[in-house]
Design a protein that fits this description.
79% of the residues lie in helices and 0% in strands. The chain is an all-alpha fold and 263 residues long. The protein has one domain. Helix 9 (184-205) runs antiparallel to helix 10. It starts with a helix and ends with a helix.
């Protein structure tokens, strides 16, 4: 996965921009909702007006948030595709590629927001069994849509066509019953352990200044780690797409790693 690491060196700044935009977006929605007291999900006895206002606002947030995330992920995927093809991309190359795909990115954000809202309503309005069902549906959606963003970027297809192609490629390459077998989350959780060690060290030292310094270092470490994780996930996703499409591993990746990523 050497090429993946190399491809992540420049695009790692893209998740930082994405994270800042998402935080600003969250603040723009959270502050008004909190000040008006409408941040909690409506109960079963809530008026129709209250439910429409809450879920309508939530849907608007989902659309905006998905658009930001998908746009910057598309930029990383574009950089990864160029790098895996032997080129030497810059952040500007990735952003230009993502900007040229704005219509399909917006369409996919709308589809993702709709699915996200439906799952959220099921969770909010159901008992424990309903929440379990919503969780299973969410997992299935995550797997089926796994290759959508690379298809949007590389092939410039519409969101529905990209979703169909994602499902077809996954089924053709890894079979009908899929589950993730390669977890960046677990890897980076283990890498995040030193941050918690820093906090414990600050507590052990018994000094307020030392504690604040350790917490600050831990936060910086976790932010940098999350940026690297986000970039590498998008790069690995691109490699999986190219492997599923072409039937051969991209330069810098081993076939057995890509083959075992999903099972």
């Amino acid at each position: 996965m050497l090429a993946g690491a190399e491809a992540g060196q420049k695009p790692v700044g893209v998740p930082l921009i994405s994270g800042i935009c998402c935080l600003l977006l969250l603040a723009s929605f959270a502050v008004p909702l909190y000040t008006t007291g409408n941040w909690q999900p409506p109960g079963h006895d809530a008026t129709t007006q209250r439910q429409v206002a809450y879920y309508g606002t939530l849907f608007a947030f989902y659309v905006c948030n998905y658009f930001i995330v998908v746009f910057f992920n598309a930029a990383i995927v574009a950089c990864a595709a160029i790098r895996l093809g032997g080129g030497n991309p810059t952040i500007a190359d990735g952003l230009r590629a993502a900007a040229s795909r704005l219509p399909v990115i917006a369409g996919w954000a709308l589809v993702s927001a709709t699915v996200g809202l439906v799952l959220r309503i099921i969770e909010d309005r159901s008992d424990k069994i309903g929440r379990i069902v919503a969780g299973l549906l969410g997992m299935a959606w995550t797997i089926v849509s796994f290759l959508v963003v690379p298809i949007l970027v590389v092939e410039n297809k519409g969101p529905i066509a990209a979703l169909k192609d994602s499902a077809i490629l996954l089924k053709k390459t890894w079979g009908e019953q899929l589950a993730s077998n390669f977890s960046f989350g677990m890897i980076f959780f283990l890498l995040a352990i030193p941050a918690f060690g820093l906090i414990l060290l600050g507590i052990h030292l018994g000094s307020g200044v030392a504690l604040m310094a350790c917490i600050g270092l831990a936060v910086i470490y976790l932010i940098v780690l999350s940026l690297i994780q986000s970039a590498l996930q998008a790069i690995f996703q691109t490699a999986l797409y190219l492997y599923a499409r072409d039937g051969q591993e991209p330069a810098g990746f081993h076939a057995e790693v890509l083959e075992s990523a999903l099972r």
